[in-house]
Amino acid sequence: MGVGLDIGSKTVKIVELSQGKNEFILKASGIAGHKGRPPEQTQTEKELTPLAETIRKLYKEVRISSKEVSIALPESQVFIRTVKFPLLTDSEIASAIKWEAEQYIPIPISEAIVQHQIIERKEDITSSQTTVLLIAVSKQIVEKYVKVVEMAGLNLIVVETELMSMVRSLAPSDQTVLILDFGAKSTDIAIAKEGRLVFSRSVLTAGEAFTRAIAQGLGIEEIRAEEYKKAYGLSESLLEGKVKEALQPTVRLVSDEIKKAIHFYQSEERGSTPSSLILAGGTAGMPEIASVLTKFLNIEVVIGNPFSKVKCDPQVVKSLSDYASYYSVAVGLAMREE
Ligand SMILES: Nc1ncnc2c1ncn2[C@@H]1O[C@H](COP(=O)(O)OP(=O)(O)OP(=O)(O)O)[C@@H](O)[C@H]1O
Ligand SMILES: [Mg+2]
After folding, report:
1. DSSP assignment, residue 241?
2. Is 99 inside any structural domain?
3. Cα gap 70→26, rounded to integer Å
4. Most buried pick, 18, 125, 180, 230, via CB within 10 A?
5. Pfam families, per this entry (predicted)?
6. Which of 11, 189, 204, 208 to mutate to test the pocket of ligand 1 (most atoms within 8 A of CB)?
7. Across 263-287, average pLDDT
């Protein structure tokens, strides 16, 4: 088992798991805020130093035993789409993608890393087809993440995308669900069918936008607005609902994107309606967010617990409980089998 490192735009999270008989066991976990730029926004190596130092310190503090880590790239930097092929073998699909990828992805092939996963094979009297998830990312961005991990003194062994990791730690294996990574800069929306990622989208509206909305709506400093957001959130009764009022349009914008995602999945992919929405990321901790989204979307909303598939010391569970939703990507990364 491995170590998962989630490099967010505001916070870094790290988790180490080991494999028990039929379960994962939590070995170590930790979180640290950082003021550095996210790697995709840097031009020089020097700009990566503050982030690399935060990772190095966190790694030491939480006493991780292995230097081999896996990371996930932000969904906003990754291009993902499903492509339909006739019923072909795995190797036929791989070579078809190699030759045809150019027509599906927006980045020149020579500058991209392209991967794929077969998500479904269907065969009936009228039609037969294979649905493939195509994942592409620019080499330049991957190199920046590789660099920052190296600068922190660690060895990078696996790179995937945030929602791929999150689906591993949060998605049930017997249903179609929506998963939301509600971070600082971006809100990432996934649809997972029977534990597999089948749809993803990233929206650049999240925690920071909520804080700005409160600052503007109430005419206060952002530091203050951040405190109000965490203390009052979408609660009606506190501060006469003023914070809620300021937040409402931004929440609606996010919820409209979720609706669009559901609609797209149902109409384009003929997928079934997700049975629930699982919330993760720091912004999942905003008071009343689950009940407001339930109202907007008319769907059951729950706060995800990425440790539900992991055995932990009860004492540790208690100390993690407020922060559990932060760890969904890191836990999912650490659950990888490689
Ligand atoms: N109790 C809370 N109520 C509302 N917002 C919160 C709460 N706790 C944390 N947040 C917000 O969560 C965000 C940080 O979440 P997270 O650590 O998931 O982001 P990140 O992974 O660094 O960002 P991203 O994934 O967008 O790059 C911040 O915007 C912070 O204000
Ligand atoms: Mg994040």
Report:
1. G
2. yes
3. 16
4. 180
5. PilM_2 (PF11104)
6. 11
7. 91
